[in-house]
Amino acid sequence: MASASLQFFAFILALFGVFGDIAATLLPHWKVNADVGSNIITAITQMQGLWMDCTWYSTGMFSCTLKYSILSLPVYIQAARTTMVLSCILSAFGICITTVGMKCTKLGGDTDSKNHACFAGGVCFILAGISGLVPTCWYTREIISNFLDQTIPESNKHEPGGAVYTGFISAGFLLIAGVIFCSSCFKRQQGAWIYPPKQHHSPATEQESNAGYNLKDYV
């Protein structure tokens, strides 16, 4: 029962991780630059994401521009696009597989098949967490290095946005969920190896052995 509750808790974490991964991939809040200027009325907030760049004006206007060209983008943005989409796909596969393998569901067949499904889903979650953690770390490093560079003007410097923090948290949720699913299945298999099932001898075998022993005595 405790193992089933732990798997359900890991499944909830994985759901939060999947939704956070999708939100971080689509939101344009990876880079944020607030330029107040000399007048608060003309203040603008520039936001850059993986797929679009948006500008918010203090007057209430909001405009976005899609990034159509892929080859013109920096390498870290191209890598972030690929790895974040891969993270979303792997986490979605993990949700489907663990739904079949969880103990609280009636799918997946016998216990061994459900354990294998849970282990495979946990591996998908771990890979999805790594795929989501790498681009967020790389993207944050580029933002910080540009911010500390004295040759770059202040108007071109940005700070990490909410999508970066969402990606970090989602990757952590996916990693924790994957470790819980994999460790629960591993502990069960390890217990089976340490305590193997006892072999029960049939009465016919015992009678044959006794008969053999008696014949030897007479000889």
From TrEMBL:
Instruction: Enumerate the UniProt keywords alphabetically.
Output: Cell junction, Cell membrane, Membrane, Signal, Tight junction, Transmembrane, Transmembrane helix
Which residue intervals make up region (Disordered)?
198-219
Tell me what topology the record assigns in the membrane.
Multi-pass membrane protein
Can you say where in the cell this protein is located? Cell junction, Tight junction; Cell membrane
Q: Answer yes or no on keyword Cell membrane.
A: yes
Amino acid composition bias (Polar residues), ranges on this chain: 202-212
Q: Name one GO cellular component term.
A: bicellular tight junction
The principal location of this protein is other
Signal sequence segment: 1-20
The transmembrane residues are 84-105, 117-141, 161-182
**Name of the protein described by the UniProt record:** Claudin
Q: Native species of this protein?
A: Rhipidura dahli
Q: What gene name does this entry carry?
A: Cldn20
